[in-house]
């Protein structure tokens, strides 16, 4: 009885979490411009419009450029950050940990506006550099967390054996430790890529028209038009993300990548 | 393996990122002490006027509203996320666990724009909820959800819940199941075990996560911007208005600094309390 009530509650909460996505997908295939529930038919008209709209196409490619560089750079730095904070004791370690994790709690618009000011000071606000730097800062905590969990689970005796057999510290790192961290790094990279591609608030501040990413272009569109073209793009993003999550969960374990598991 | 060369090689990129974070914050604080010159992006000399300005009702009420909205969102998030996090950690069936993780965490990764747009479709006057309410004859005219605090909070709870679920699931996964089993073996009903064992043992996590979500919610921009539609304003909307529409960088900077202080300050304030709770749990 108690169990039944508990699961009814959980299902109700999950419906709350999922209903917006379902509604978006429903309206993306709705033929009419105004919403109708239930939909009055089936049409891919809005998808065709989304693909032919120039701003969406260019911002999609800008987004891919930013995402690729930001998540790759963040993965490399994430390994470095997880490794130094886990394996070394040094003065200022706590401060470094705090500064690298801080973008999780600093309001997004503070970070975005801060980098807008930095970019203006350096005169680089029209290029990709400032966008990529901002995204690296924002997604780094997620990669570091994912790599850190892998690092905690590395069997140190493997490293010691290699060292005892005469491998230099750098060889141990490259041949033993890094290969063992691969799942954490790949998982972190995927999470970082998804977060970067869908990042909006900070991007709004640091992108220019030439470098605007997809969410920024979507925001501009929503403010000007009310038709469901955005629903079509949103539906595609929702479906791709869900599939991505599913694949990460099957191959690497989502709980591990997000560091939910304690051991 | 504690090779100094590896340390140097790894510490340099980390320091560069830390430096970037510091620089962005320094820029915000530096601009908040600058004089605004209307019609120009250049700023004048040192002034404290921007800080007096945010004491004016126009800004001050928005700051209070932001704190209130974020607090309410954090509390509703806690209530709705705990059962899901609990189910997620304690479920033994593999397929069910995977389903729970994916359904509850995916919204975080679709981004704020997609989710906000989705809530506009759900809450709009010809939206999903109103269509159902009217079809069932519960109401005769659409209920106004858009441009209300209620609508904004509903969407913000959805915005922050995935993070809350991750944080609470982490806390719950640290609880040793043997305590729960021991209490059950001694004859405690499941609900009693939950209230007397699980909840107290996760109390440090509950407090810490709620404050993190309070800070996280202050980050929201698209949700109050589009669902609030100018009728419900948060600090983020004022920063956007002042920074990117009026190009009043100094006022935007002060408001950004206030949000930063509120977010980081609330976490710092609650930290000693969380540490004390952790110590008490460890003693039990």
TrEMBL record, chain A:
Q: Could you say which residues form the signal peptide? A: none
Please report the record's description of how this protein sits within the membrane. Answer: Multi-pass membrane protein
User: Which PROSITE patterns does the protein's record reference?
Assistant: ABC_TM1
Quote the protein name from its UniProt record.
ABC transporter permease
What GO terms describe the biological role, i.e. biological process, of this protein?
A: transmembrane transport
* Listed transmembrane segments: 60-84, 96-122, 128-151, 172-197, 229-248
Write out the similarity annotation.
Belongs to the binding-protein-dependent transport system permease family.
Q: Which PANTHER family match?
A: INNER MEMBRANE ABC TRANSPORTER PERMEASE PROTEIN YDCV
Q: Which Gene3D superfamilies match?
A: MetI-like (1.10.3720.10)
**Domain of life of the organism encoding this protein:** Bacteria
> Which cellular compartments is it found in?
Cell inner membrane; Cell membrane
Query: What start-end ranges are recorded for coiled-coil regions in this protein?
Result: none
Q: Which UniProt keywords apply?
A: Cell inner membrane, Cell membrane, Membrane, Transmembrane, Transmembrane helix, Transport
GO cellular component annotations of the record: plasma membrane
The record places domain ABC transmembrane type-1 at: 60-248
Report if keyword Transcription regulation is assigned: no
Q: What is the lineage of its organism?
A: Bacteria, Pseudomonadati, Pseudomonadota, Alphaproteobacteria, Hyphomicrobiales
């Amino acid at each position: 009885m108690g169990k039944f009530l508990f699961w009814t509650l959980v299902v109700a909460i999950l419906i709350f979490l999922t209903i917006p996505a379902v509604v978006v997908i429903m309206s993306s295939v709705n033929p009419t411009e105004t919403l109708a529930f239930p939909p009055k038919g089936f049409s891919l008209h809005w998808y065709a419009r989304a693909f032919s709209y120039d701003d969406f196409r260019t911002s999609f490619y800008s987004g891919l450029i930013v995402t690729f560089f930001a998540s790759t750079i963040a993965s490399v730095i994430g390994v470095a950050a997880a490794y130094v904070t886990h394996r070394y004791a040094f003065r200022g370690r706590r401060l470094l940990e705090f500064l690298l994790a801080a973008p999780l709690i600093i309001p997004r618009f503070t970070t975005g506006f801060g980098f807008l000011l930095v970019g203006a000071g350096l005169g680089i606000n029209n290029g990709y550099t400032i966008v990529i730097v901002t995204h690296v800062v924002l997604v780094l905590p997620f990669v570091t967390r994912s790599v850190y969990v892998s690092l905690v689970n590395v069997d140190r005796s493997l490293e010691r054996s290699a060292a005892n057999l005469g491998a230099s510290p750098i060889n141990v790192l490259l041949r033993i430790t890094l290969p063992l961290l691969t799942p954490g790094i790949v998982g972190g990279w995927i999470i970082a890529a998804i977060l970067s591609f869908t990042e909006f608030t900070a991007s709004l501040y640091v992108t220019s028209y030439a470098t605007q990413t997809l969410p920024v272009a979507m925001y501009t569109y929503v403010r000007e038009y009310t038709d469901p073209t955005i629903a079509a793009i949103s539906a595609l993003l929702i479906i791709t993300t869900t599939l991505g999550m599913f694949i990460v969960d099957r191959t690497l374990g989502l709980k591990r990548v997000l560091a939910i598991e304690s051991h | 393996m504690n090779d100094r060369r590896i340390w140097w090689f790894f510490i340099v990129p980390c320091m560069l990122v830390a430096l970037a974070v510091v620089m962005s914050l320094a820029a915000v604080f530096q601009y908040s002490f600058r004089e605004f010159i209307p019609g120009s992006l250049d700023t004048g000399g040192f002034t404290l006027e921007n800080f007096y300005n945010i004491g004016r009702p126009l800004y001050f009420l928005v700051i209070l509203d932001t704190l209130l909205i974020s607090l309410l969102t954090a509390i509703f998030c806690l209530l709705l996320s705990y059962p899901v996090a609990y189910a997620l950690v304690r479920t033994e069936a593999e397929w069910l666990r995977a389903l729970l993780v994916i359904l509850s965490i995916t919204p975080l990764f679709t981004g704020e724009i997609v989710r906000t747009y989705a809530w506009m479709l759900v809450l709009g006057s010809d939206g999903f909820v109103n269509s159902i309410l009217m079809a069932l004859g519960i109401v005769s005219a659409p209920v106004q959800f858009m441009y209300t605090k209620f609508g904004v909070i509903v969407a913000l709870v959805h915005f922050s819940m995935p993070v809350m679920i991750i944080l609470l699931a982490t806390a719950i996964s640290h609880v040793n199941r043997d305590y729960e089993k021991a209490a059950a073996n001694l004859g405690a009903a499941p609900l009693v075990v939950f209230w007397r064992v699980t909840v107290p043992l996760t109390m440090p996590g509950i407090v810490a996560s709620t404050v993190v979500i309070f800070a996280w919610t202050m980050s929201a921009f698209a949700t109050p911007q589009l669902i609030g539609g100018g009728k419900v304003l948060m600090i983020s909307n004022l920063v956007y208005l002042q920074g990117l529409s009026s190009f009043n960088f100094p006022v935007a900077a002060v408001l950004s600094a206030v949000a930063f202080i509120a977010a980081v300050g609330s976490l710092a304030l609650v930290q000693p309390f969380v540490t004390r709770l952790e110590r008490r749990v460890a003693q039990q």
